[in-house]
Specification:
homodimer, Uridine Diphospho-n-acetylenolpyruvylglucosamine Reductase, domain 3, Alpha-Beta Plaits, five-stranded antiparallel β-sheet
């Protein structure tokens, strides 16, 4: 099978599990949307794939929605004919979330980019689901506020909410779980609800906001969201800190977290990853496990945090501790971390990065990473280890040849062991990427009978099973 | 009708909506629990009431459970005979949560007081549902850690999770929504699940933890919970700050919150409430709207926060700003706030406090309180205004004679107006007390079609409707 530009097998357009779109549906959608309804192969192919290694399937058609009302109409049309609806934001999913495993319509929300209301006095903003995090922060630039959740890709806010995304700032600012205030959601029958109020807290019934956050489009389609904003910190300081061993680096992080230091970011790169960065960016970092830190706050507060972190690092045998306040030097210190994606990708021409995503309690981070390093050392391909270690979340980047069944099998087995290890340590199969199709096989192990509860909720809110089918919940045995 | 010691109508033992407990159920429960199964009137009466003004109904029997397995067995026995099960913790509910509106069994979890595991390195603890917050903090005393969520009563952690409780510390540390890590829950058919892992974040499927938090025992019975802990701050500073008007006090709070100052507590008492405190405790506070603040952090951090708060208060016309670091003086500064419950209660012999609980976006706090003061001034009974104002949450304490239909009607109408006002301002009917039977009439207004989603979830997880029936969700029209 030939590979496409991304080095993966091409998106499959033939839909074995799909009967194709009924004519009545395509004509109704076409009448509703005009040129914003497409059955073109290029549109279908683009909407059937994320950024992952997963085999994917293209939808039968693509709808480019421009409003909540349109989303509602599209869902009603599809529901009347039992046609699956798969929400699509920026296509940055890593776990096959957008794959049309049972055919159907990709509902593209990326044209819903209105920023509806910024409320500096309430530190919140209401946006349409297609607004990306960079768009939002660019828009906010003059307000002194920012939105902190920062997954790697240029994701949409709607997609980030749907996958309960996070990123490097989560250790201080939380994930989408903590930062979504309320949602507008189109249900499986086309009804529209608003979950939650704009009050900071409420005890008024079931927490529908948190239920839809992380539901990956399987319970409803998020069309608008209100999220929390934060003041841009008065002072930002960055630091890098190399260690002789990965244990020492992790022990430093654990010490910082356990003492309640409100560190904004703390990222780990292992020796291999630093080597990859030096090679890719022509840098000369010491080739050893390294922490990248960032501190936010008042001048005095940041100075205190930096002093504490330096002290903790030295107690744990740090080889150096270099910090800086000015933007240029901060950027230089963090360059290896910023370039990591490209550096790892570049380790192998036509290689593809399979990113694992376990997250464990902080006390288990050291043991889990150390045990995992045995697998990393034994692998037949290059593996980077990069962690949002303040949250206990780390990613292995397995640089595989996706056309090699042997490498895919090896990667698969390694990931299986890693997930089982993380769950045994009290952790989770996915800290921030979501389940999609990729992690579905771990749900029973991770949740036990909790999966039955999820299945019951899914059946209650989407009895026809048309909303992003084949994601999150394994088929009942 | 004669009144009981609490000044309310007696708990009704006759159950118009209940056929009483079938013999098969009572004999099976008795065989399971021995003397921990009770049909004594005193036990039934105690378990049919919370601390509220609501008319309440006693259960047909009380089961004192000692383990998750027992809770599961009790639920199975009740489910087999369609007998309602009403979880009971410390009986501190303010919204009729424990009322056996359709008869059935009160499932008392207060004997499940084991602290299962404290994990200082992970800043979490696993407890049985009957542990109270004071018990937990007493147990933690030597660890340097504490659990911050502090509703007024000596509530159980299970009850606090079930009602999504909060308190004065929520502005900095969050509510039960943010502080529950995972739960053990007995489902309506007796199955036991564990929701969530101990990882700080996860994207692995629906957020069942957040779904059960705030579900008031209507979806499952929480038997164990893991909650977050925090290091006891190095430095604590308290301040009080009187203002000429309530607007100035609120503007000060809004300024502090909007600037992201991590204030730990900020409480408002209005003039009437200060007067009540002076009278009750023989104090001589200036009788004017007053803020009570507390700051947690490092010495330098707290000094910075206090300086900022003082500055903000002065800009908004504060009449004074007195702060202190030592425990005795802090306690003296806060005395009026600590005594407020008794001071308000004492305004009227045999009076009963009806506590309202709206919460609005912070920008609406000033207008909402100011509009509400017109109602307060016009009322025929004493009303205190006390607010967790950093969250936009405030309570009116209506000191009513609960045997007076006229006063009950007046209070009811005032509360209705208040709730509608808060919802119109983008807020909620209940910031921290929950829905129970008391707020059920506002759910349609607050959530619209979201109530249908809640109803569908309820039907999916409790198809027989045996779990705390008659709470949260209004009967379908």
């Amino acid at each position: 099978m030939s590979k496409n530009a991304a080095g993966m097998e091409p998106v499959r357009l033939a839909q074995p599990a799909s009967a194709g779109l009924p004519d009545a549906v395509s004509s109704r959608l076409s009448a509703l949307l005009g040129p914003r309804f497409s059955m073109k192969p290029a549109d279908r192919e683009h909407h059937g794939k994320g950024e992952s290694y997963h085999a994917v399937q293209a939808p039968d058609a693509v709808c480019f929605a421009q409003s909540t009302e349109e989303v509602s109409e599209i869902v009603k049309i599809c529901a009347a004919a039992d046609v699956p609806v798969i929400p699509f934001g920026a296509g940055t999913s890593l776990e096959g979330h957008v794959s049309a495993v049972r055919g159907g319509v990709s509902l593209d929300l990326s044209r819903m980019t209105q920023i509806i209301a910024v409320r500096p006095e309430d530190l919140d903003v209401t946006v349409e689901a297609g607004v990306t995090r960079h768009q939002l922060n660019a828009y906010l630039r003059d307000t002194g506020l920012f939105f902190p959740v920062d997954p790697g890709g240029e994701s949409t806010l709607g997609g980030m909410a749907a996958t309960r995304a996070s990123g490097t700032n989560a250790v201080r600012y939380g994930t989408m779980r903590e930062n979504v205030v309320s949602l507008t959601v189109v249900l499986a029958d086309g009804r529209v609800i608003r979950s939650g109020s704009r009050a900071r807290k409420s005890s008024a019934g079931y927490d529908l906001t948190r239920l839809f956050v992380g539901s990956e489009g399987t319970l409803g389609i998020i069309t608008e969201l209100t999220v929390r904003l934060y003041g841009i910190p008065e002072m930002v300081s960055a630091a890098i800190c190399p260690f002789g061993t990965i244990d020492e680096a992790v022990a430093t992080v654990v010490g910082i977290i356990q003492c309640g230091i409100p560190i904004a970011r703390v990222e780990l790169m292992d020796t291999r990853t630093i080597q990859a960065s030096n090679r890719y960016s022509g840098l000369s970092y010491q080739e050893t496990p390294t922490l990248f830190m960032e501190f936010h706050g008042s001048a005095a507060g940041v100075a205190e945090q930096v002093a504490f972190a330096r002290d903790m690092a030295e107690q744990n045998g740090a080889l150096a501790f270099e910090s800086a306040d000015d933007a240029d030097t901060r950027s230089r210190l963090w360059k290896a971390r910023h370039d990591v994606h490209y550096a790892v990708q570049a380790m192998r021409p036509n290689g593809r990065v399979w990113s694992t995503d376990v997250c464990v309690p902080i006390s288990a981070l050291g043991p889990c990473i150390v045990e995992t390093q045995k697998d990393v050392e034994a692998a037949s391909f290059f593996i980077s280890t990069v962690g949002h270690v303040g949250d206990g979340n780390f990613h292995l980047g397995l640089v595989i040849d996706p056309s090699s069944p042997a490498e895919l099998a090896e990667a698969n087995a390694l990931n299986d062991r890693l997930v089982r290890r993380a769950i045994a340590f009290g952790g989770t199969s996915t800290g921030e990427h979501g389940v999609g199709t990729g992690k579905i096989k771990f749900m029973d192990l991770e949740h036990g009978a909790g999966v039955d509860v999820m299945r019951a909720i899914k059946a209650a809110l989407d009895p026809q099973g048309i909303l992003n089918p084949g994601k999150i919940i394994p088929e009942a045995q």
